[in-house]
Amino acid sequence: MDRIYIEYDNARITKGEGILLNVELYDGRKFENLEARRLFPITGLDKYITLLDEEGVEKAVIRDINTLMEESRENVLNALHEYYLIPKITRIYEAYEKYGLLKMRVDTDRGKYSFDVKNRNNDIKHLYDGRVLIRDSSDNRYEIRDFRQLDKKSQQVFNPYM
Amino acid sequence: MLPENILTNLPFPSEFAKKAEELLAADEKVLFCLVGDLDLKGLYNQSAVLTTDKRIFAFDKYHEGGVLIVDLKDVTESKVKRMYGNAMLRVTCGDKKVDLFRFTYSVASLADGAAIFYENLAKGNDPLKEVELVEATFKKMKSFCPKCGRALSSAGAECINCASKGKLVKKLAGYILPEKGTLLFCFFLSLITTSMALAPPYITKMLVDEVIESSNLKKLYQLVVTLLLIYMVQYTIGTIRGHYMRKAGSRTVTRLRNDIYAKAQYLPMAFYDKISTGSVFARISGDTNNLQAFMLRITQEAIVQAFLAVGIIIIMFSLNWKLTLLSLIPVPLVVLGARYFGQKISPIYRRIWRRWSSVSAILSDTLPGVRVIKSFTSEDRAINKFNSYNNEWLQEDIRASVLANIFPHAVTFFVTCGSLLIWGIGGKWAIDGEITLGLLVSFISYAGMFYGPVNFFASLNDGYQSALTSAERILDIIDAEPEQNFGEGNMVESLKGKIEYRSVNFSFDKIKKTLTNINLVIEPGDIVGIVGTTGSGKSTLVNLFMRFYDNYEGEILVDGVNIKDIDLQSFRSKIGYVQQEALMFRDTIFNNIAYSNPSATVEEVIHAADVANAHSFIAKLPEGYDTMLGERGTGLSGGERQRLSIARAVLKNPSILIFDEATAAVDSETEELIQTAIERLISGRTTLMIAHRLSTLRKANKIIVVDKGEIIEFGSHDELMALKGKYYKLIEIQSMSEKIRKNKEAENFE
């Protein structure tokens, strides 16, 4: 079966139950209660979003969220925002090592939080676009959108661990 | 009133406690509570779930009135909906789904325990009995070291990481201590050479002030000979010391390497899933050398240089305190500079290490895969990728080199300024007759010598930073949690082969369950075929049995004993494991077969090869059993390598056999040879056979069909065919493709 690609106005995406989405294609086909997942959660946040049914079977793929109709775009973005909890770190208050763990106290777009990083060589990844991805000891993820854009103090605090 | 010793992961927030006390009925018994870190909108906030024997109280500011109450008797279903970085505890009451509590992965395993509790209650189980399961989950959570968070070998055990942690130095000293005799000897020699090094400037002073002034030829020759003797002894001792230092250093690095390699053998598979082998190579080779060089520098040179510096200062002060103070002016600048330099260069060294690790990883990935590269004519792509990674390393190295070079030169410049001060001011004093010419000359020599220790300590920081990075990388392996051997010492002689899986759930990443609720009983001597589509969880099922991963829920038993309670090595030694890709070592065919039992006799090895249908092809090789195999067994076909690996299994004489797609990568004719070898081997032994080609399961008396991590069918071939389910469909598809293949073969033959 050919894969259904959704782009521009060939589908209308509405909000379903919880974080689920309903899709109505231009030819009248309908899919309900689909879950949106990023196929490229690190390298392509807005592109290639797969829509899976309750069994995990892919029903369609959104090529680029930004080409969708405004309402559909909003619904997909909201669903993704709910599904992917990757707090964006906006300020780093503390970063220090204790008992072999890197202990961090930060401010994020979802509020203040403290967490531990087990292995700073494997759990902190600095990407070329300036993003920094961090994984904590419980497998939660955090992101610094652009390390260079952080305030001087935060940069100073975290720089030794980058 | 809430009980004081309430079962909870974190202190129950007082605002929730107050509300709970108002809502709880007098006869209601609080069982446990979970304190979370997210609200229902996914923002960091306090939330909690309090469970009593009658109701669930979910506290979250987005619930109406801040609390949602659900009667336990209304709950029909309960599950944790895992998302990315967060999850939701959800219960179903009739046809209504209710989101109780949202949380990060930090509390996910506790929430799993709560979900199972609600689910079991919905089945009519007794809440007071079921709460034991929740208690066990909480206890498991407390099986983590409160200091470092690492899993303990058993609940309440001492953390092996923290217990041995101490200071970095203390840990590394363990590698140097066996050399203490040699090092003390070298240190003693250093003291002699250093003391001798202090004499020549003083003799120069005597030469200028006393000998040349008074034209005393006899004393001149005496002093020149003394200087010659001093230099001879100094350089001879230096040579002897160099030899012993190198010996001690090499022995230290060997010990360190042996330890890392030994540790790497016992690290769990999960470690290798995350860390590239290239990065482990880099640690065993480069980092150990780096660290060893620094350890010797610090244990020897630092003390010697400090001794030299103190000696020079004492002599200089005794000669002229004013000139001494002049020459010490640059010291504060050097010390402050070293501190600043350390902060700047440390992250660069870490980045260099990472870049080098990436280069090593490419090497270890691509060189063994050179066939793939050639077959896709992607040599240029491989070269470009390597060049690009190597260039990234170069960029970082250049950045470090700029900083690393600026600093010592800046130090030398400041120190030289100090010597100019001595020339300027001391020269004037000599002209004025305040000091002798000999004193000035010897003072300049001592000041020059003093720059040696200053430079040494200035650049020591450079080496220290680099060594610290290496030490961290090495301790990463040495301190890593090894495979847990809960049943250490609990050896088994032999196994009958009864295997049981009880409610086994497993997930690699905590997001997607790879195996769900596996319940299975395999009787001794059963030959069990495991079938299913790719990625269905077949291999994971046997990987758990092999104890490659231990962090699953539920129990796996062999002969009625939990496999975690049996000594790990003893357990694995009773299992024969034949993989899809038969890995051969760079050794002879004989040694490759005897790998499973190094004490096997020649005839036992030949017999094993015979059983595995390998003897006939080995006998035809010009060098027979002495044929040297290359990396990954080059020189042999896939089928031949597979038969050697079966011979290995035969020689091991295991109680239980596992074949993981052993015939997937060979042609039909070879498959037949392997198949007969397998059939000889499995008789009377419990055997698990993962098979892609269902024809290989002709001897299986039971078939397990795995789909999406669950066992969907289990029974004999005939039973499953009668069921007309997934197995029936798979057989249909394969028979059809087999027919097509045979027809094509017939056409080609005609």
Q: Kindly report the oligomeric state of this protein.
A: heterodimer
Work out the count of structural domains of chain A.
2
The CATH architecture designation of the largest domain in chain B is: Up-down Bundle
CATH topology of the largest domain in chain B: ABC transporter transmembrane region fold
Mean pLDDT score of chain A: 89
Largest sheet of chain B: 6 strands, mixed
N-to-C span of chain A:
46 Å
Question: Beta fraction of the residues of chain B?
Answer: 5-15%
Structural class category of chain A = alpha+beta
Output the number of helix runs of chain A: 3
Q: Which value, in Å, is the CA radius of gyration of chain B?
A: 37 Å
Layout of strands and helices, then pairs:
The complex is a heterodimer of chains A (162) and B (750).
Chain A (H helix, E strand, L loop, with lengths): L4 E2 L4 E5 L5 E5 L4 E9 L8 E6 L5 E7 L5 H14 L5 E10 L2 E8 L2 E7 L2 H4 E3 L5 E4 L5 E4 L7 H7 L4
Parallel strand pairs in A: 1-6
Antiparallel strand pairs in A: 2-3, 3-4, 4-5, 5-6, 7-8, 8-9, 10-11, 11-12
Chain B lengths: L13 H10 L6 E9 L5 E9 L2 E5 L7 E5 L3 E8 L4 E7 L2 E8 L4 H15 L4 H15 L18 H6 L2 H9 L3 H35 L2 H49 L3 H6 L2 H43 L1 H7 L3 H36 L3 H6 L3 H54 L4 H42 L20 E9 L5 E10 L4 E5 L6 H8 L7 E6 L2 E2 L5 H5 L2 E4 L10 H5 L8 H10 L3 H6 L17 H15 L3 E5 L7 H15 L3 E5 L11 E6 L2 E6 L1 H7 L2 H24 L1
Parallel strand pairs in B: 10-15, 10-16, 13-14, 14-15
Antiparallel strand pairs in B: 1-2, 2-3, 3-4, 5-6, 6-7, 8-9, 8-11, 11-12, 16-17
Walkthrough of the structure:
The complex is a heterodimer of chains A (162) and B (750). In chain A, 15% of the residues lie in helices and 43% in strands. With 162 residues, chain A is of the alpha+beta class. Chain A has two domains: 79 residues, duf1285 protein fold (Roll), CATH 2.30.270; 73 residues, no CATH class. In chain A, strand 10 and strand 11 form a beta hairpin. The N and C termini of chain A lie far apart (46 Å). The relative contact order of chain A is 0.13. With 750 residues, chain B is an alpha+beta fold. Chain B has three domains: 128 residues, Pleckstrin-homology domain (PH domain)/Phosphotyrosine-binding domain (PTB) (PH-domain like), CATH 2.30.29; 311 residues, ABC transporter transmembrane region fold, CATH 1.20.1560; 140 residues, 3-Layer(aba) Sandwich (Rossmann fold), CATH 3.40.50.300. In chain B, 57% of the residues lie in helices and 15% in strands. In chain B, helix 9 packs antiparallel against helix 10 and helix 11 runs antiparallel to helix 13. The radius of gyration of chain B is 37 Å and the shape is extended. The termini of chain B are far apart. At the A-B interface, helix 1 and strand 9 of A face helix 4, helix 11 and helix 14 of B.
